[in-house]
Structure formats: structure tokens, C-alpha cells
Amino acid sequence: MADLAFLRLRLIHDRLAREVAREQAARAPDPFRLRRLKKLKLAIKDRLTRSRAPRLTPA
12-22, pLDDT tens digit by residue? Predict the structure, then answer.
């Protein structure tokens, strides 16, 4: 189940990366949309990192 969640987050991250690239390539990129996309992409990346980080348990 965790792998399915990771895959779903990865797909969302990839889609956001494509949207960021598309917006940056636009003739007149919208800076507010670009900032929002980048923040979302970073939030997803953080969740991906946390989901793959080893679980630390108190001793």
C-alpha cells in the first residue's frame, strides 16, 4: 500500500514538473502560477522524502 502512495506522489510530482516547464516556456509566464506550482512540487518532494526515510524509533 505504501508503494502505491509513493507511486501516486511520484506521478503528481512529475506532472507538476511538466507544468512548471510549460509555464516557464510560455511567452509571458505567470509568476504567481509559477510560484504556486513550484511550492506544490516542493511539498510533494518533501512528502516523497519523508515516506522513504528510515523510521527512527526511540531507544
Answer: 999 999 999 99
**CA-only gyration radius of the chain, Å:** 15
* CB-CB contact of 51 with 6 (8 Å): yes
Q: Are 43 and 16 in contact (CB under 8 A)?
A: no
| Nearest C-alpha neighbor of 50 from the set 16, 17, 20, 5 | 5
Q: Kindly report the pTM of this predicted structure.
A: 0.83
Residue labelled with grid coordinates 526511540 = 58
- Please count the CA atoms within 13 angstroms of the CA of 32 that sit on its side-chain side: 0
